[in-house]
Amino acid sequence: MIITGLTGWGDHVSLYPQGIKPGEKLAEYAGHFPTVEVDAAFYAVQPKKNYDKWIRDTPERFSFIVKAYQGITGHERGEIPFASKEEMFKAYVDSVRPVMESGKLGMVLCQFPPWFECNKENVEYLRYVRDQLSAFPCALEFRHQSWFEPEFKERTLEFMKNEKWIHSICDEPQIEGGSVPIVMHPTHKEKTLVRLHGRNTEAWKKPAKGEKWREIRYLYDYNDTELNEWKERVQTLEKTSENIYVVFNNNSGRHAAPNAKRFLEMADISYEGLAPRQTSLFDEGDFFKKWYYNKRMKSGL
Fold first, then answer.
1. For residue 188, is pLDDT > 60?
2. pLDDT of the residue at 293
């Protein structure tokens, strides 16, 4: 099964009727897609009340991809707000446990930074992380090319399979060191994650100090040719991994939702059991048809 969604639910303006309150957005989002990536969990270990609300706001068949806290993956700047790593992991596990118990946890996503390279020390740390998060299905995403260099590629994939890591396959700009190639190899028979970050190569490189590089890094609009390529790739992955989660992360220009909708249309995918949606002045189908028409006109097609 192909399960498609977006990163976060707050900024996808094309999905929501005018005047919707922030606290109502997830329930409305769940009328469009059956899964979402919880970015907030990366920045802080979320209180139980947040997950309880998010579980209530979504239908029975909805699932969450919860990002690992930045202290777990080594993104943090300065000291973590915990007395020890053990305390940090316990707090994170206790935080996410209600999602697991509700049956709505698709996976925990451990995305490691560009400086996390392939070496013995980091392999041992991955084992430690997987042990600490053993209660959950976990996806592993690299950002350093060394993991998939010819001399390490097969050993990396075998390691992931043996340690029960779900492979997070990425589409991202190819720059020296700080990105990984598309590696079409599931490591988990039940789940595979595909994350589409866009292909904005220049913005992927951190610009000069002071520029808002985070806001433009994921500024990318997938065209039909690229979406069709991913449709075919995902259908191939589905032959060896039961559930393929496809997450669009290219939202700096608000392209993620329209791109995901177009992907579903091209793949002829529709979902049952989505949440009911609020009625609005314009029909959603009209909005996306207008968006797609304007896009083609601007590109001269």
1. yes
2. 45
